[in-house]
Amino acid sequence: MLCKLPDITQNINSEAPFEKCALGRQPYAELLTEIVSKTNEGVISLNGGWGTGKTTFVRMWEVLLKNSGYTTLYFNVWDNDYTIDPMVSLMSQLVKLFKHEKYKKNVKSVLAQFGKILVNISRPIGKGLIKKISGVNLDEITDGLSDATEVAVDEVADLGEKLLERISKEQEDVEVFKNALESIVRSSANDSENQKPIICFIDELDRCNPHYSVLVLERIKHIFSVPGIVFILSVDKKQFGNAIRGYYGSDLIDANEYLRRFIDLDLNLPPISSEQFFNYLYKSFDIKAIFSKRNDRDIRGEHENFKIVGELLLDRSSITLRQAEKMMGHIHLVLSSISYNQYFTASVITILVYLRFVNNDLYEKILNRQFSLQELINELEDQFNNFFSAKKYNETPVHVFVYSLAEIICMYNSNDYDSKDVKILDGQGSDRKLLVKVNLIPEEIFIEALSWESQRFRFGTPTLKSIIDKIELVNSII
Fold first, then answer.
1. Which of 61, 98, 253, 405 is 20 to 30 A from 477, comparing alpha carbons?
2. Which residues of 147-180 are buried (b: 16+ CB within 10 A; e: fewer)?
3. Does residue 299 sit within a domain?
4. Is 1 among the domain residues?
């Protein structure tokens, strides 16, 4: 029984890397490859929100690039942010690219310069280090400055001169290192037929602590940026912008302007096809098998309604791919826990599990029956406000969704909580009218749905309490 899909990045087909891509992103990877083919150095950002499949995409694209003759390197910053400086982890990965004996001498030269840089920039300039560099005691100078003595002024001048010399030497070491790195990169490119640049993927940058994230950017741009290496940052720029503002301790920082100093080209992951991804989840979790065990007509209808509501939720909400996968795993467990001869309403289960993931406060208040019937309608309209565009009232998905909401409202209004029902409709046939108020839900469809659901309740549909009990049972074990 599945509650989580396997990590497909662990088993990418080397000959057809996008074989298992549920989002049809291979054409986009091929377009990006064309862009990269015209680039010899620099930093490219590949922007996508959390849970939109960035890591899966770049791992598949990496294989596609290898198949096209590129040398690639994948560096997961999140897995390495325990190191003192990202230079160390990044350099260790780069060195692995030059294992051949003929690069041995050049690699030693690069590592020698790297060691000098690391010693210099890994330690802060504190009072102890200043004294070691210049022999000057800052505390003594500070005390002496109150008298404005000539000795103190001379010592400060001497300190400044020695620090400038040290900075100049550090800058020189960086240039020597970059030249050595460029030399070995150029040498490896000349050994290949196509002379393609090394493509270095930097992933999960937005998940690290702000200090480490900013340090990675600075190291890439100022130390590792040489001809022959193209860095691709897989990042959620919105979250990374928050990290930058957190690092500098100011909400006034223009994160986009700051990032322009480091990034040469901005790209975005293409929009997600909700239909395609829903079908992928539906197939991967084998939802069809749950319905296939039942032959009654109502369940067949519920099967179709489930697919319509599930796809609509993915299409018209801001739920991420990661959330959608977890949600479908949860739904799969709930549906699987229901006896094969017991009727269930899958679309209602889907909406309630969705609420648990995206608006747990609303879900908990429904669970604890904290709303009046009118308040519940208001809350559901507010939650799903963009589901009821007037231009789309006649769409089948909207009809099915309104019917599902009507079922939730009728269940909430039923006596399964030992409460007295509130009358929702008055009149008969075409003269029926609502006794509650709706602002967004199309009233005509809502009246029709409530009438149908009130009839169905006479034949023993499951109670809201029994459905939520199933959801909560699954909640307790995952």
1. 405
2. eeeeebeebeeebeeeeeebeeeeeebbebbbeb
3. yes
4. no
- 3-state class of 230 per DSSP? strand
Closest by CA to 111, choosing from 159, 181, 63, 20, is 181
**Average pLDDT estimate for 156-185:** 68
Residue 348 pLDDT grade (very low, low, confident, very high; cuts 50, 70, 90): very high
pTM: 0.72
Helix 321-336, helix 346-358: angle, nearest 10: 140
Residue type, 475: N
Domain assignment present for residue 225? The answer is: yes
Do 243 and 115 share a structural domain?
A: yes
Tens digits of residue pLDDT in 92-107: 888 888 877 777 777 8
Summarised one tens digit per residue, pLDDT across range 387-399 is 886 555 457 888 8
- Alpha-carbon distance of 104 to 98, in angstroms, equals 8
* Close Cβ partners of 305 (under 8 Å, ≥ 6 residues apart): 346, 347, 400, 403, 404
Q: Count of CB atoms within 10 A of residue 108's CB?
A: 11
Contact indicator for 325, 8 with CB cutoff of 8 Å? no
Looking at the predicted structure, is the pLDDT value of residue 31 above 90? yes
